[in-house]
Amino acid sequence: MPTEELIPLAEKLLEVPQELIRTALDLELQEGTVVADRVGETPCVFLAGLHQAERTIADRLMRLANRKLPWPWIDPDKALPWVEERIGLALAESQVTAIRLALMSKVLVMTGGPGVGKTTIVNAILCILAAKGINLLLCAPTGRAAKRMTEATGFEAKTIHRLLEVDPRGGGFKRGDDNPLDCDLLVVDETSMVDVMLMQALMKAVPDRAALLIVGDIDQLPSVGPGQVLADVISSGAVPVVRLTEVFRQAAQSQIIVNAHRINHGVMPDLRNPEAESDFYFVEADNPETAVPRIIELVKTRIPRRFGLDPVRDIRVLCPMNRGGVGARSLNIELQAALNPAGERKIERFGWTFAPGDKVMQIENDYDKEVYNGDIGFVTDVQPKEGELTASFDGRSVTYGFGELDALVPAYAASIHKSQGSEYPAVVIPVMTQHYAMLQRNLLYTGVTRGKRLVVLVGQKKAVAIAVRNVSGRRRWSKRQEWLRSSPSVSRPIGMAG
Question: How many separate helices (H) and strands (E) can be counted in the chain?
Fold first, then answer.
């Protein structure tokens, strides 16, 4: 944070005079727990660990980028027609440009919204390199995103934590400088979600010989943890970037994709009642009193009846906020009562009720149980005598003692932040003026792009307009962009696709 902002904020938060804060800050600087540095011309204070992590990421990226490619030269004029036949698709010009660039880049970033063909490009690259015997590794920040990547590519993808092999004893990772990953190409998907500390751990584990393909949507919300890794790497100009903007014909038939791109460009989504069957709807509700029963009716009755979806497994309510009458917390209680009224075998702990059939979310990383923050499961059994609850996560059974249930919350509704990296058959998003503090373009865009088959906005047009207009999130201060720019220049082709 800029020192000029930090001191008055600390004064207000701690209710102590500025002189005392300045003294404490000087002592912290001497001890090395915080570091003074500049971002541009602005004097800032960094936590020492984050300052070091940003530096490490920049150094490792440039070290990787300046090494030679791990595969011999591949003739794109032969490889491209071959891969088109293999994947059964005619590639567009923007996709061809991206694939050519990937085959000759040691480090490449690929960014773009839904429907622009990121998956097709990644598939083609993997297909070409796998045929050449190149050793590939794929990863994503969440279990859901890794599973989606596996399904989309046919190659196994792991969560970053699993790839780096968590050491449950020390809490760190077994993979790193002294025990690097064994690969010639590492592909990282959903990189907008990766925070500074996790990216540092990943970069330390990538061997110097390997190429790196970073994939993500820069317009989504930044990571929940500190930093803005993807945005910094892109804006530094230090490595080649492919920006995909062309929405393909098939994708353009989806109102979800069309409206997501409208929101992203600061244009109101089409909220009119569609004349034919659609995958995007707007339901008017002027206040929380009407919004809540409408959301429950949509999830419990209307969507399942019309679209044949399971109300518990297939539909997710995504909220701009946790608090408030139309926040994730109170909607969870209402939806749980409507969709899975607890029978006798229920247990109440930490302010929540859990019963067999409940949809639940893990809210912290548990390396022993191998369940991670954001993972979704279903309660299969509650045994009061044994003091245990069992939940199934992607078919894997996990047991919790009743004292451990502070790691679980009901997951009928969740914040949009918590939904990053996941996709659901249907999402319902309340957008009310009472969410004013959180109504931002990238928040609404992230929420809308979570829906695969159906998106329903419930609320006021005025609230949607506020979100579409509001691009200002809190600025994240970071120095990585400068460090990347000041690194020895990397010879690189410039690729702009779309």
Answer: 18, 20
Structural contact between residues 245 and 252, judged by C-beta atoms closer than 8 angstroms:
no
Arithmetic mean of pLDDT, 416-423: 88
> CA-to-CA distance for 95 and 101, rounded, in angstroms?
10
Amino acid at 71: W
User: What is d(CA 190, CA 80) in angstroms, rounded to the nearest whole number?
Assistant: 25
Tokens of 121: 């490009």
The pLDDT, as a whole number, for residue 474 is 74
Model pLDDT for residues 435-470, shown as the tens digit of each residue: 788 899 999 999 999 999 999 999 999 999 999 999
pLDDT at 490 exceeding the cut of 60: no
User: How many angstroms separate the CA atoms of 210 and 68, rounded?
Assistant: 9
Q: How far apart (Å, rounded) are the C-alpha atoms in residues 497 and 76?
A: 16
Could you tell me which residues come within 8 angstroms of residue 30 by beta carbon, excluding any fewer than 6 positions away? none
| Residue 97 to residue 113: CA distance in whole angstroms | 17
Beta-strand ranges (E) seen in 369-423 are: 376-383, 388-393, 396-401, 408-410, 413-415
| pLDDT greater than 80 at residue 492 | no
φ/ψ of residue 106, rounded to 5: -75, -40
**pTM of the prediction?**
0.91
Determine the Cα–Cα distance for residues 269 and 272; give it in Å rounded to an integer. 9
CA distance 34 to 37: 10
Helix (H) or strand (E) holding 261: helix 255-264
CB atoms within 10 A of CB 400: 24
Rounded distance between C-alpha atoms, residue 56 and residue 492, angstroms: 21
Q: What φ, ψ does residue 299 adopt, rounded to 5°?
A: -70, -40
**What's the burial of 212, exposed, middle or buried (CB within 10 Å: 0-12/13-18/19+)?**
buried
Q: φ, ψ for residue 392 (rounded to 5)?
A: -105, 125
Distance, CA of 295 to CA of 286 (rounded, Å): 13
**Of 12, 2, 488, 448, nearest to 257 (Cα)?**
448
pLDDT (tens digit per residue) in 323-349: 888 999 999 999 999 999 877 788 999
Spatial contact of 477 and 74, defined as CB atoms under 8 Å apart: no
> Could you give the CA distance from residue 471 to residue 492 in angstroms, rounded to a whole number?
32
pLDDT tens column, 197-206 = 999 999 999 9
> What's the pLDDT score for residue 488?
54
